[in-house]
Amino acid sequence: MPEFASVRATKQRIGHLSEAQVEQAWERFERLTASELTLLSVGQETFKGAATLTLDAASGLRTGDTFHLGCVEAAGANQIAMLDAMQAHSAAELEIKTLAFA
């Protein structure tokens, strides 16, 4: 949740999203989290999975991105919500569906 808020603010700050767009994205995110989001404990295997994804230098993923994708895999989920195109590309390679907000 903090990561989504951070990305939202960054996208607005650098001009990729308008104030109206970030508000719409946050409203959708809040609806999603109220009805469909499950918070999970993070174990050692999730950190190992994220580290393995980070080892691929060509992916361009940041640590936080790999951690989120690792959490999706560890949870056995098949979809992730995001605003990050690079992370979406990597998710697709892992056969994880994306829910785009913008």
Write the layout of secondary structure elements.
Elements lengths: L1 H12 L5 H17 L8 H11 L8 H13 L3 E4 L2 H9 L3 E4 L2
Helix pairs in contact: 1-2, 3-4
Characterize this entry briefly.
The chain contains five helices and two strands. With 102 residues, the protein is mostly helical. Helix 1 packs antiparallel against helix 2 and helix 3 packs across helix 4.
Describe this structure in words.
The protein has 102 residues and is mainly alpha-helical. It has one domain. It has helices at residues 2-13, 19-35, 44-54, 63-75, 85-93, and strands at residues 79-82, 97-100. The protein has a two-stranded parallel ribbon with strand order 1-2. Helix 1 packs antiparallel against helix 2 and helix 3 (44-54) packs across helix 4 (63-75). The longest helix has 17 residues, at 19-35. The two termini are 17 Å apart. The model has no long low-confidence stretch (mean pLDDT 85).
Q: If strands are numbered along the chain, what order do they take across the biggest sheet?
A: 1-2
How many helices does DSSP assign? Answer: 5
Summarize the main sheet.
Answer: 2 strands, parallel
Helix content: 55-70%
Q: How many distinct folded domains?
A: 1
What structural class is derived from the secondary structure elements?
mainly alpha
What is the first-to-last residue Cα distance? 17 Å
Extended strand count: 2
| Uncertain residue ranges | none
SSE string, helix = H, strand = E? HHHHEHE
Radius of gyration: 14 Å
- Global geometry: globular
Q: What is the mean pLDDT?
A: 85
Portion in beta strands: 5-15%
Tags for this model:
single chain; 102 residues; mainly alpha; two-stranded parallel ribbon; 5 helices
